[in-house]
Structures are given as C-alpha cells and as structure tokens.
Write a structure and sequence with these properties.
This protein has 250 residues and is an alpha/beta fold. The chain has helices spanning 12-21, 28-37, 56-65, 78-87, 114-126, 139-148, 158-162, 167-186, 198-205, 217-226, 228-245; strands at 6-10, 42-46, 70-74, 91-94, 130-135, 152-156, 189-193, 210-215. It binds pyridoxine-5'-phosphate.
C-alpha cells in the first residue's frame, strides 16, 4: 500500500539568525506559523545543550501556538528528557550531540549505546511521545533501534548529500535505499533528513518506505531569497514529482 510523504520543516536556523544579534527577530515561531500555512506537515526543532539556536521559550511557544505536530530533536540527557516530559511534544528524535560540531555530524551509535538509550526510549514512549532515533543507514543500527522498542528511525542523509554527484553519491543513496527496505522488513517507520536540497531530495523522496523528510538549513537559506512559502511550495513539488514518478502517492 503506497504511503504519502510528509515534510517536517526544521526552523532551527531562523533562531540562529535571531541569536546572532540577541533579541526576538526573526522569530522561529512565526516561521513555524508560515510553514504551517504553506503546507508543512510538521515542525522540527533541535534544542541543543548549548542553546545555540532554539531556546527553551521557543519550545514552550511552539507547543502553545502551533497546531502542527512538533518533533523535538534532542540529545539523550536527563536535562532534555525532563524538558520533553514537561512538554510532551508529538515526537522526540534522539540525536548525538557534540559541543564542538557545527551540525549533527553523524547518526547515533544505537548499537553501541543500548544500555544508556533504553531508559530514554522507554520513558519518552511511556509518556505517549513517538520516539525516533537518528541513525546512519546501517542495518546494525536499525536492528538495535528495533531491539530498544523505538517505533521510528530517521536515516542520516548527510553523507549522501555531501558526496559528489556520480558514483560516490549513488553508493550513498544505495545505503539509504537498503536501510529503508530493512526498516520496513523489521517493522520500523522510516524517516530521513539532513542536508537535503532541491538537488538531492528527489531520490530520497522516491524511496517508497520513507514516509517523512525533515529539512531545515536549505529551506531557511532559500527563504531569504524567495520567501518561505515559495520555498516550501517548490520543495513539495520536487518531492511530489519524485514520489509519483516512482509509483508512490504524494
Ligand atoms: N534531521 C535531524 C535529526 C537533524 O538533526 C537535522 C539537523 O538539525 C535535520 C534533520 C535537518 O538537517 P538540515 O538542516 O541539514 O536540513
């Protein structure tokens, strides 16, 4: 049964620009409202330990003011767990976090950290939050996510997006295709994201077992030139064309 593809809009980098000067402008919650009007299916925000972009009050306001499901990206720490349990967003995506990284560089080593992650997956799930684990497209990581009882995985598409077009990118895409098939086979809902752009999104959107893409940096960057509404419209069109061309539904 073909499944439609959702678009989660990550608004972190509206907050990056705001924080460059302090103050309130530009407001990521306003961006979330615009994204909702422009047809986003969900809003994604990463509350980092160092609060370099999204801050605690953004999460409070997103929960209070936005009707779309919120996907809260967070590290597996007690501080973040307490925040998630206080707000109970629709979903939490557990991501690895290093203070010195510019962005989330790789997936979570679920297979290597099962003992630590079990409690987070369990406590979030028990609170009715849909738990997703952000992982590299590796079968061992998928199997570990399944063993922990997480219902969802998000495949890191960064290596695919960063690879030069040609054989290298095709090989990275193949890893994602195989991982998405493996997710389906073991009963995990499969999402994907990181680094996606108009150029790279089509091949991922065409994978029928991937049901959600989370995209941020490229969308916010494009929005500077043509506005968020126009950017989302075009991104949705590229996703839809690729999905339909592969025999799926949009
Ligand atoms: N998915 C996850 C789990 C992420 O951590 C990020 C980056 O915050 C994204 C998707 C979106 O990546 P990008 O901003 O490169 O589109």
């Amino acid at each position: 049964m073909p499944r439609p593809l959702r678009l989660g809009v990550n608004i972190d980098h509206v907050a990056t620009v705001r924080n460059a000067r302090g103050g309130r402008h530009p407001d990521p919650v306003r961006a979330a409202k615009l994204a909702a009007e422009a047809g986003a299916d969900g809003i994604t925000a990463h509350l980092r330990e160092d609060r370099r972009h999204i801050i605690d009050s953004d999460i409070e306001r997103l929960m209070a003011e936005i009707r779309l499901p919120l996907n809260l990206e967070m590290a597996a720490t007690d501080e973040m767990l307490a925040i998630a349990l206080r707000h109970t967003p629709h979903a939490c995506c557990l991501v690895p976090e290093k203070r010195t990284e510019v962005t989330t560089e790789g997936g979570l080593d679920v297979a290597g950290q099962m003992g630590n992650l079990r409690r987070y997956v369990g406590d979030l799930g028990a609170a009715g939050i849909r738990v997703s684990l952000f992982i590299d497209p590796e079968p061992a990581q998928l199997d570990a996510a399944k063993a922990l009882g997480a219902p969802v995985v998000e495949l890191h598409t960064g290596a695919y997006c960063e690879a030069p077009a040609g054989a290298e990118r095709a090989a990275e895409l193949e890893r994602i295709v195989r991982a998405a098939a493996h997710a389906e086979a073991i009963g995990l809902e499969c999402h994907a994201g990181h680094g996606l752009s108009y150029e790279t999104v089509g091949a991922v959107a065409a994978i029928p077992t991937i049901v959600e893409l989370n995209i941020g940096h490229f969308l916010i960057g494009e929005a500077i030139f043509v506005g968020l509404g126009n950017t989302l419209q075009r991104m949705r069109a590229v996703m839809k064309d690729a999905r339909l061309a592969s025999g799926g539904v949009s």
